[in-house]
Write a structure and sequence with these properties.
The protein has helices spanning about 10-35, 90-95, and strands at about 55-60, 70-75, 80-85, 100-110, 115-124. It is α+β, with helices and mostly antiparallel strands. The chain has a five-stranded mixed beta barrel. A hairpin with a 5-residue loop joins strand 4 (about 100-110) and strand 5. The chain is rod-shaped, with a radius of gyration of 34 Å. Mean pLDDT is about 80; it is low at about 40-45.
């Protein structure tokens, strides 16, 4: 039979403190253990932005292609060539020469280290 002396206040406080200390110990120990066994490359890095760069200007066909697939060039308002353009389809051939456009796509470099855009989208 259970008597009132089995549940004395100091004993109840001892049991509560003991359980709390055990929980803290297990929580701390598992955190330390997980840090030691985690692979070094498991640290998550922020994701890079996946937006494609866009450039604005007037589009003109190139007179002399310096690169095999370059068909057009993007010119700024001062008449300077901003970038050379190429496309996997005929989207560049549809645009009239001298039209103001914004092109977006993969930015690369020519063999002369000039900007080259693999055009994915044209906006008027």
């Amino acid at each position: 039979m259970v008597t009132s002396s089995d549940f004395s206040l100091p004993r109840i406080i001892f049991v509560i403190v003991f359980i709390a200390l055990m929980g803290i110990g297990v929580g701390y120990g598992s955190g330390v253990l997980l840090k030691q066994t985690a692979p070094k490359n498991a640290i998550q890095t922020p994701l890079k932005a996946t937006t494609t760069p866009s450039f604005s200007g007037k589009i003109f066909p190139v007179s002399i292609a310096t690169e095999p697939a370059v068909t057009h060039e993007l010119v700024d308002k001062d008449g300077n060539v901003t970038a050379f353009l190429q496309s996997a389809d005929d989207k560049l051939n549809v645009v009239l020469a001298g039209t103001n456009v914004t092109v977006s796509g993969k930015l690369m470099k020519t063999t002369d280290n000039k900007p080259l855009i693999q055009v994915e989208k044209i906006s008027f």
